[in-house]
Amino acid sequence: MKKTTVYHTRHCSYNLHVRLIFVTTYRRKVFTARIINELKTIFETVCLQFNAGLIEFDGEEVHVHLLILYPPKLSIANLVFKLKGTSSVIIRNRNYPSVKSQLWGKALCSPSYFASSCTGAPISIIHQYIDRQKTPD
Q1: Do the Cβ atoms of 87 and 13 come closer than 8 Å?
Q2: 89-115: buried (b, 16+ CB within 10 Å) or exposed (e) per residue?
Q3: Which pairing describes strands 53-59 and 7-8: parallel, antiparallel, or unpaired?
Q4: What pLDDT sits at residue 123?
Q5: Fold of 13-131
Q6: CA–CA separation, 67 vs 128, rounded Å?
Q7: What pLDDT score was predicted for residue 3?
Q8: Predicted TM-score (pTM) of this structure
């Protein structure tokens, strides 16, 4: 059995993971492999700003899955706000044809999101599930 890594701060020990799913505005098929690769870099950068880590990331044309290790002081809502806001500004400013033709306004993703704690299933199973997403060509 694999030993679980426990992270430490001055006053606590933790191993917290959250699974997030973001869908595109109007569930339009806008994510390409290039956009998904760029989103991964953006999300990694944002996570580092919050002392969190992007453990796994992938997606399909209308949604993306993230598996994030985060410290206990971090609000998931604040993290999601920053992830979605930063990625939307950057991707929209790049004027990708799939985004420009399918979406209008400033939003890239729907204002809603799915968040789930990962205590029910082993992280390795969630990791495999996200890894098996069918990245578009």
Answers
A1: no
A2: eebbeeebebbeeebeeeebbeeebee
A3: unpaired
A4: 75
A5: Alpha-Beta Plaits (3.30.70)
A6: 11
A7: 55
A8: 0.85
Amino acid in position 65: H
Report the alpha-carbon distance of residue 63 to residue 22 in Å, rounded: 6
Amino acid letter, 25: T
Mean pLDDT by 10 residues, the chain (137 residues): 73 92 95 97 98 96 96 96 97 92 89 85 79 83
Q: What residue ranges do the domains of the chain occupy? A: 13-131
Our CA angle for 89, 86, 109, nearest 5°, is 70
Structure tokens at 134: 């069918």
| Tokens (6 digits) for 124 | 């390795």
How many angstroms separate the CA atoms of 122 and 125, rounded? 5
